[in-house]
Amino acid sequence: MTLTQLRKIKEKGEKITCLTAYDASFAHLLDEAGIEILLVGDSLGMVVQGHDSTLPVTVDNMIYHCKQVHRGNKQALLVVDMPFMSYAIPETALENAARLMGEGQAQVVKLEGGAWLIETVQLLTERGIPVCAHLGLTPQSVHQLGGYRVQGRDEMGAERLQNDAMALEAAGASLLVLECVPSKLATEITDSLDIPVIGIGAGVDCDGQVLVLYDLLGLTHGKPPSFSKNFLQETGSIQTAIKAFITAVKNGSFPGVEHSF
Asked: How far apart are CA 22 and CA 10, in angstroms?
């Protein structure tokens, strides 16, 4: 799977599937099932390491897990999160992104943030490092945002997200993740961009959907996010749960209104 192929999927009006992966065994299962994108998410800080946020995750942690996922993957596009403060300035971002691609063998790096990242996105993409942008609820900024809250509900917030999305695409971003954004706004942003938009808690009209694998399997400790669904509960096996997620995304039955804002 390549970025060019993902754009063609968007152009055809078909849906893209993405799940997080943190090790070789799950990477193999997801890839074998036909998931288009594997995301080595800094969510590993919570679901694997047991922290209460993603903030303690380091670049070395991400490289370690990315290498494992790479070993289990054959076909899916491998995207890796750049952890908190690893891209605070463009020069630092370039150094750390190079490590994630060179040592971790990632194919795309993902950065959380809006217009302030334009210079960084330009620097990375000009040097051959593909970028996935991430707007809406950005977990690395959870303290500044005042918690895990839906973003873009008011007119000013919606306009800012729309403008940020267009600016990041113009700067060279190849993908965009929208998290916890009202469905109507997510639809408008998706329709306004040429690059694929992957939603999580952003309605059914995004070009694709991503979930944290542990949420999909009902393994997350505590109350699951309202935008997630336990596919294992309905299917009884990990393999069929993954395939059920793929089918539901492809036919538009997931996310439903109960998983959207």
From this structure: 26
Instruction: Tell me if 228 sits within 8 A of 19, measured CB to CB.
Output: no
Cis amide prior to 224 (ω within 30 degrees): no
In which domain, by residue range, is 26 found?
Answer: 3-259
Number of domains in the chain: 1
pLDDT tens, position by position, 135-191: 999 888 766 665 567 888 999 999 999 999 999 999 999 999 999 999 999 999 999
When pLDDT is averaged across residues 26-50 and rounded to a whole number, the result is: 97
Residue 112 is among the residues annotated as catalytic for this protein: no
d(CA 231, CA 69): 22
Please identify which of the residues 32, 179, 234, 258 carries the catalytic annotation: 179
* Domain harbouring 48, CATH code: 3.20.20.60
